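Possible regression after last week's pipeline update?

I re-ran a chain I had predicted before the update to compare outputs. Posting the input and the new output here so someone can diff against the archived version. Not blocking, just want to make sure nothing changed silently.
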Amino acid sequence: MELLEGILSRRSVRQFTDEPVSPAEVEDILRAGAWAPSGLNNQPWRFAVVRDREKLRSLAGLTRYRHIVEGAPVSIAVFCDREAMYHETKDHQAIGACLQNMLLAAHALGLGAVWLGEILKSAGQVRDLLGLPPNLELMAVIAVGRPAGVPHHSDRKPLSELIVAEF
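New output (post-update):
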C-alpha cells in the first residue's frame, strides 16, 4: 500500500470478526507506534496489550463504547510515561503521532482499528485494572481486529475551508 493511499483510505473500524490478530501483527503495530517522532527522541509511549477475554470485558466496562472493546480480539492501551516526559505539550503531540502510526500500520496489515478517547474518563481505573504504576498516564485505547463489514464513509472539509493563510 502506498503511504498517501493508506492515509487517505484509513477509516475507524468499530466492528470486528472473531478471527484473532497474530502476535506478529501486534508487534508490527507496536513497532510502528514506537517509530513515531518525539522531542529529544525520549519516546514517552508505553503499551499494554490486552488479549485476555476477561480482562477485555473488564476494560470494556470502563467505556460507553463497551461493544467495541468486547468485540475486538485485542486492545492496546497507550500510555505516556510521565517520568520520560520533558515537555507536556510536545510529549502529548508525540503520543498522537504514535497513535496515528499504529492506526496506519493496522490498516496496512489489512486490519481495522479505532482510537478510543472517551475511556480517558476512567484513566485511573484502566491503570489499576492493568496493574500499572501511577507514572503512566492513559492517552487512548486502540481496539484492533479484522474488519466485519465495510467501514463508515467519511467526508472531509475542503482544503479551502482549512487553509487560514498562504503567503
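Follow-up from reviewer: compared with the archived run. Strands lie at 45-50, 74-81, 112-116, 136-145. Marking as no regression found.
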